[in-house]
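User: Please predict structures.

Assistant: First:
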Amino acid sequence: MNWRLLAKRQWPLALSLTGIVIAETGAISTDLGWWQLPGVLVVCAISVLAPRKPFDAALAAAFAIACSALYLRLLGVPFEPHFFLSGATVSMTGAAMATIAVLVREASHVRAVLGTVFVVTAMISAEVLGWPAVSAREYREWHPDPTSYLFGACIMLVLAIGTGLYFRARDNERASQLAASVAAAQNSERMALARELHDVVAHYVTSIVVHARAGQLNRAAAEQVLPTIEASGHEALTAMRRLVGTLRDGESSGPAASSSLMDDVRALAGESGLPVRLSFDLQDAVPQELARSVLRLVQESLTNTRKHAAAVSSVDVSLSSGDGLLHLAVVDDGVASGVPVGGSGGYGLVGMRERVDLLGGRFSAGRREPTGWTVRAELPIA
């Protein structure tokens, strides 16, 4: 724990102990009684610094309490005012309780038990060592009841341990919540990267596979599809570099949407190699982030058509806006082709639905009669 955090956490304890020590100095009745102040101040300082090294602080506090009681015994004076029958002041007792609470809160179970035993033993030794310094006359005037003092000591010990256990439970709860938040953030990031990989890289790899297959089936057309395969390979490499840049630098891995969503959709349609018919009725400006997601939806829809459909004579892509919503529809008339090109991981529709849900929109996809497939999305523009 750094010093700034320690000061922020411990200043109430330091202020309280300082006030108690100042009040106690007014009760000192002999010149030799002032010798208790060094020991009291050391024990209070240890309790304030305890969060840095709780177990070491407990050992140091126990040693300081025992040494203070011992040299006061050699001087023949008691702690003033002694909080129990004959030993330890209010400030020293409070410091010991605070040290035990910090120990129970932050140390391991074994160290918490051992440290508590050491501090309690030191407090008992202060009582034993301080008893001869209390005059018989003073004892007769007080008529103290040892049982009541013992009960009070047990209550304070329970309070110190209970406080430590309470804050330990709170710390564990906060740690669990933090771990859950970190796990959720990591999972969200993994899902985002998975969508990018599926929507971007798979799109271009699918194009490569489709054109390579066409070249195998028609040797005469092989030379014509090679440039398309090369271009798709370059695009796939570019997309991979963007994803690597995201992992390294935290920059956005989304597609580079231009200022015109319609131009970007036209470019995707041209790259797809499908008979795409476009329809636009955009009455509202589309934000860049939303435009990027729309491009991903169009891209994935066209990729699915190429992978899963045969005998496609038309793909209708329409974009319109109104009443604060952007409407997207991608409709084809293809026939299911059986085993898709390159196999299918089944994540395309899942990724599109997740994108739309994250933007607060509505998504639907399904077969149309008599043949074909429809993808529709409604996305809030604001």
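Second:
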Amino acid sequence: MVSHVTMTPFLYPPLQLKVVTPKLELHGATDDLLAQLLPIVRAGIVSQPPYPFDDPMSLYEDNPVRERKWLQAIWRGRGTVYPESWRLYFVIMLGGKAVGMQDLIGVNFDTCQTVTSFSWLAPDARQKGLGREMRAAILHLAFEGLGAVEASSEAFFDNVASNRVSEVLGYQANGADWATRQGEKALLHRWRLSRDDWAVHRRNDIELIGVETCKPVLHIK
């Protein structure tokens, strides 16, 4: 007889995390929720310029490599948790439907309490104000829930939507850098958001669920 062991959210508290706003919910990315996103990943997140992701990026790969590499990267990230660095993966739920992902990444968190973020949306979920809403949600988790003191973001110069979200949410321009996307170099805009600047835009309609049980896993006191 073969015994099957299933990882439950109770065994890995980050899978229980939720961030709830009036428009959408961020749910810890369980395998069941990732399965709901597979058709979107299979169809392709982006198929023409401007390309939003820097290299290496599994979402640029061809099927079925894209799906496999995407899942493997998330599974590796779950198991790579140190006091200084970790990554929380969330599935964006809109009306009960999975429409994208929003990640929160701890960077030198044990000493500097800094974070950055990464996200994507299904093509048919864009241009509806969700990008700003899900970034506001993840920033609320970072600052209010986990005690971050600074958040950073970066986006290619022609990623107008992402740069606009950063600007509207109070990030300050923080220089530029170069990166490659599909092997071609391109200019990145860099952004920085201090806790004080976030507080100016802080919302009181975002609910955090499961934060306290998650902190020990992330080595946060």
